[in-house]
Structures are given as C-alpha cells and as structure tokens.
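Here is one chain, start to finish.
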Amino acid sequence: MAAAGGRAPRVVLGVGGGIAAYKACELLRRLSEGGCAVRVVPTRAALSFVGEATWAALSGQPVATEVWDDVHEVPHVRIGREADLVVVAPATADLLAKAAHGRADDLLTSTLLTATCPVLMAPAMHTEMWQHPATVDNVAVLRRRGTVVLDPAVGRLTGADSGPGRLPEPEAVAAAAWRLLRRGPGGLAADLAGRRVVVSAGGTREHLDPVRFLGNRSSGRQGYALAATAAARGARVVLVSANSALPDPAGVRVRRVVSARDLRAAVLEEAAAADAVVMAAAVADFRPADVVATKIKKTGADPAPLALVQNPDVLAELSAHRARPGQVVVGFAAETGDAEGDVLAHGRAKLARKGCDLLVVNEVGDAAGFERPDNAAVVLGADGSEVPVPLGPKEDLADVVWDLVAARLPARA
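Its structure:
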C-alpha cells in the first residue's frame, strides 16, 4: 500500500504503559512488513515493559517519550502532522483519559493533539477499569470526536482474572489499521461514530440428529468484513456469527449461534438498540420437522422421506417491525439465474418481498460468492437505486454497503 505520492504510509504507533505492551511488538512487525514506515512513541511507563532499544531495532527509527528530545525538530507537532495514521495499542485507562481531556504532558499525548489523520485506539486494562463510568465517558467523548476506539477483547487478563479488557490480537488491530489506511487521506471519516450496528454472518445449521445437519457453504467472510469495516469507521458492532471459524474482528462483540431460530433470537435482541442491521448470514429457509435424539443408523432400507418446515423469515420481520425510528435494514441475496429470470430480476422481487432498505445481490456458484476472499454484487435500494460493485476484496463491498447505510441514517440529535 502506498500513501500520497507513492511513499510508504507513515504510521505512529503509540504504546501505553500496560502489560499488553509486549503485543505491540507483533503489531509493529505486521505494519512494517506491510510496507508502513512506523515511528514508535511509547509513554514512560511503557518502557518499563518493553525497552527503548527493542522499539528502535524493530522500527528502524529513533524512539522518544519526551517533547524535549530533539527539540529543534519540534517533534510534538511534526510527528502528528506528518502521520497518515496514529495507532495506540495498548491504550490504557490513563491514556484514554488524557486524550479525552486534551492533556499533553509527554510526546504521545502531544502527538494525539496535533494529529490531523485518523486515530485508532485499542484499549487494554482490567475489566473494572474498562467498565468504570469515568472510562465509559472518556471513550464516548473520543468516539464522538471521530477517534476510532475499539472495544477490548474478552479473555484472560493479568494474573487469574478474565473478562472484557484484553487487548485484541495484533493481527486484528493491524487489520483495522489497514482498513483506515485504505480509505486514504481524509477518507476515514468516522462516519459511523456513535452508531450501533448489528451484522449477521456465516451459515445456520439445522440438525437432523446429534451428528448430521442441513447447512450451506457460507464461511462468514463477508459478514466478518462488514463487522470489521464498521468498527474501523467508528461503530459499536455486534456480530451474530453462525458456525464460522474466522477469528473475531478487533473491537467487535461476537455472539455465536447455530440454528436459524438461534440467530433470530440474537438478532432481534440486539436490533432493539441498533441504528442499522445488516443480515449477511445465509439463513436456512427450512428445518427438519423432527430432530432425532440419537444418531440415525443405516439399516439397509431406504430412509424415510425427510419432512421439512419453514424457518422464520428474520429479514422480513426486521423490516416490518423496525425496533426504532430510522433504523436501516440491509439484506443479502445469494442468487442464481433460472428460466424465470436473471439474478437481478430475482433480487428486485426479493427486495420488494422483504421490505428492507437495501439488498446486496450477488451471483453464487462454484467460482463465485461462498468461501472466497472476494465478491462482486449489485446493491439495490428500495428507492430504485442500483449500485454495482466490481469484483474485489470483500472489505471493498463492505465499505460500499456502509457508505449507503450512512447516507440513509437519520441525523444525530
């Protein structure tokens, strides 16, 4: 990836004083190997966990914590102005508080005040600190100003503690950073900052017995791309994941489900507080009428016909009963052409039938759609609009979808 003028993107990696500082070494490696010129700006406390020599060796650039280092170059202004992206990982409770209140008592906080580029913060702290009203308020202030603050992961913390507050894995933070850089200068816009969105992903399974199920080929890649991209644009994201083996996107709360009825319950619960709901999961239309409690054995005789019943139509239900005024509902339609019409004809009919605001229509087959890193689609709007998206990474399609959603969201009060 190249920045303006073909140069390497300039990334400032701010490192807070938490035990998770050691993970920032891996984040630095991923950004550097991806072609970024990374300047590490640790806090004084961070150097108690990872030394200055380590950061300098890994980045190939000088490391400083104070505005008085190389003062003739005015680093507290220059570093922030020249950056294409500032990433803070780990962002401690103290750093979040200083950033929210405009404190500038070292090189990193001064850089945050002078940065004119996107800022991505990956918090890490104990659960009680993350959930404290002061931290909650500080995060809300930062997000309102356009800073992308990821939600921390849930897992093992320092010692025997476990809960929300764990630094997302470096791979996931790096992926969020790349998404911000891809949008280019001034293109971040945390246009979803303060918004709550729900995304479904993967493919539901309808069990026949404890071993067998009816399912589909969805890997969840498109839904996960939608969730990660929304988080990178500042949204609070809940991902309802049906049987996907993909790693959790950074800053996204994941709810795992199995069947269509499980998915319906989770999506309707989360949609109650959502500004937008994107149904990217491949939800089974039918399920077995009866589920056998033990494994069905082969007897040599032909099996009995399989009786099926319809599953609830979650997309139509969401569209007909909006949880809040102005809520935007997006559906996906994996289609194939047939004697009754082509892919778009089926898509237009489905859009009218489901009542959603947008329908992403993509043709599926052996070489398209499922289980691939790329996708092509046409996004149909209830207003009659049609937006074609050429074949490319699924993140590109996700960005187009969020562009269209953002344009339809009501203005904030």
